[in-house]
Amino acid sequence: MSRFLSMRNAFTRDVPRLEEGSTVRLLGWIASKRVHRDKAFLSLRDRYGYIQLVVSKARSPEAFDTVSRLNLESAVYVEGTVKRDERAPRGAEVHVDRVEVIAPSDVWPITKDVAKSPEAMFDMRHLTIRGPKSRAVMAIRDGVVRAAFQYFTENHFVFITAPTFITAAVEGGATLFKLKYFDREAYLTQSSQFYEEAAICVFERVFVIQPSFRAEKSRTRKHLTEFLHIEAEAAFMEHDDIMDVEEELVKYIISFLSENYEEEIKVVRGAPLPVYDDRFPRITYDEAIDILNSKGVEISWGDDFGADEERVLSMEFETPFFVTGFPVSTRSFYHMNDPSRPEVTLSSDLMAPEGYGEITSGGQRIHEYEALRRKIIEFGLNPEDYGWYLDLRRFGMPPHSGFGLGVERLLRWLLNLPHVRDATLFPRTPSRLYP
Ligand code: NSS
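That is the input. Now the predicted structure with NSS docked in place:
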């Protein structure tokens, strides 16, 4: 073990559980500091959170002298004694005997003025991520991925990865990022779906958790150019079956977070996550259009929902709900048309309530060769661009369904964040490519 790792005998989260008087040796960063006469009150942050340190001149003149001169965000080693105190934020604090500066910090540039401007905060994102709120959001984001992995594994899905460099659009050419791939043209992937469809003939059920890219100039609160995409695809599942999977997954993630991230949820949201016992309502696209029209929104049958329509519609709900049966004109070519009503597809979006809108999108795919070829042509696309994808339909492709869930959209909703960019470490939007 390195010198540093062997120095430590506890993390901040252990301190409230330790016996009064035990000696702790901690590593971390000085997150806040207040000096009051001969006493300094510091908050030490490590990978698990925060603990209060008390450094008194009487107890340790040397440590007091060191911390008095120390800037915020300096990395330190601290040795001290556990003391219970009702007034301390976690019910216990560490009375410090020794401090060693491992890496000093310059004067911390995130002042109250900087903090007033969200843009300035994102310009300094490499530093501002250390704040308590973004720390909590990122911890919860880790929880979303863990929960999804656990849910899928328990339900017989196999994790795969798909390429980022691709040659043809999944979700329409308008949002493709084009790039040079040596002397050829390539794109950044919008979705791993087509690769998942190949892989279901190996494992039946597969999932991916990886970035997708969209050249979307939309300046809304729900669009990133790079987002974390949880996608799943399952053989022998029809449209209704995959909606059940989506609903179970979202409920599973919510209970996993409530069980394991209580403190972080409180920091970000102020209140526990909602509990949804009942089945999510399922309304048709036609019903959604009626609701929108009755709310004065001008939208005709066959139009896709934009951010505004989703907001108005989801304001009508207090729980997540599915909208099913989107018209052929609003969905990508691979969606299966409803045999009982060919102008709509076997597709759905799961919408978050209270204005948040779409968080997942999915449906049943066309599994027959001729039907898919015809639809590719109907959509004005070139079947040659979809060679291998079409080819799969010649070699035992069963009925199958799948969906994609945007992790930042889910987090924005669950944590009431102002914008999806708050749900990712280093957001990419049309205007933000740095840091
Ligand atoms: O375009 S989607 O609606 N659908 C697909 O990509 C399918 N091929 C997924 C699949 O069935 N395997 O995107 C799916 C989800 C959508 O519901 C959002 O939650 C999220 O991906 N999404 C985004 N999040 C953030 N920013 C942007 N631009 C974005 N686009 C989609």
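The CA atoms of residues 270 and 415 lie 9 Å apart.
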